[in-house]
């Protein structure tokens, strides 16, 4: 199962649209995960139309219309891998321990908010992934998103992709 993970897209405030390479990855993926800060319902509609399956949550920059359509936390089973998606996880200090306590029943936690790519493992084996942002790199050298593969209930081939503007 092929995944694309993204967050903090901030369309149309930070970009008019997602970069072409990310759209191509979305269309090729089996599952697309968006960890919040969409900003506009039009992007949610477009991603829904162009994805085979979309799992998303709202972020702190998402207004009432998006909050009415998306949960704060999403939980899904993807080919035996227990996944939770949330926008904010709090400060980076203590993140692994805090998230392991908050999400003891999942294998993978996808989060956003910081615009900083993150890939760590908490005590007990919880994997934490933040794809960064494909449209607003802030202090990072590149805008980014992640792809990954799930095989037999295990997360494999996690790749951080640098995004160039079209």
UniProtKB/TrEMBL annotation:
Database matches in Pfam families:
Metallophos_2
Q: Name one GO molecular function term.
A: hydrolase activity
Q: What EC designation does it have?
A: 3.1.4.-
The cofactor required is: a divalent metal cation
Residues that span the membrane, as ranges: none
Domain named Calcineurin-like phosphoesterase: residues = 1-151
Q: Keywords in UniProt for this one?
A: Metal-binding
The source's domain of life comes to Bacteria
- Family matches, as PANTHER family: VACUOLAR SORTING PROTEIN VPS29
Family per UniProt?
Answer: Belongs to the metallophosphoesterase superfamily. YfcE family.
Q: What is this protein called?
A: Phosphoesterase
Name the species this protein comes from: Micromonospora taraxaci
